[in-house]
Request: fold
Amino acid sequence: MTEKSNWKVPIDKTVDLDDFYKCMKGTEKKHNPKCNSLKGEIGKFAICTMYESRPTPCRAFCASFENGKSNQRCDQARLKHGLKPLTREDWYKYHQHSIPITFS
Ligand code: SF4
Reply:
């Protein structure tokens, strides 16, 4: 069974943005958007309660240095919650293996 076989966003977790697009409930708000599927306390312990069936934008979004590159949008989101941007070293500490090396 592949990851994609479980990949079906529950419709009740979404809200219509317009006639064509939907988004996760809670993220449609202009001020202080927060997905209703995110549970816990940001900065302490927070978890996506539908991680296996999260939508495409969530799957495409990389935290800073998750793929070896910084992500300004990740940094901005963390700063908004009073958290420092992630560094390569954070991933190294988290995964306890080599820091990705980029040759150019
Ligand atoms: S990863 Fe999960 S909690 Fe975060 S926005 Fe996507 S569905 Fe919501």
Observations:
- The pocket of iron/sulfur cluster is lined by residues 24, 35, 37-38, 48, 50, 54, 58 (CB under 6 Å).
- Helices lie at 56-60, 72-80, 88-95.
- The longest strand covers residues 38-41.
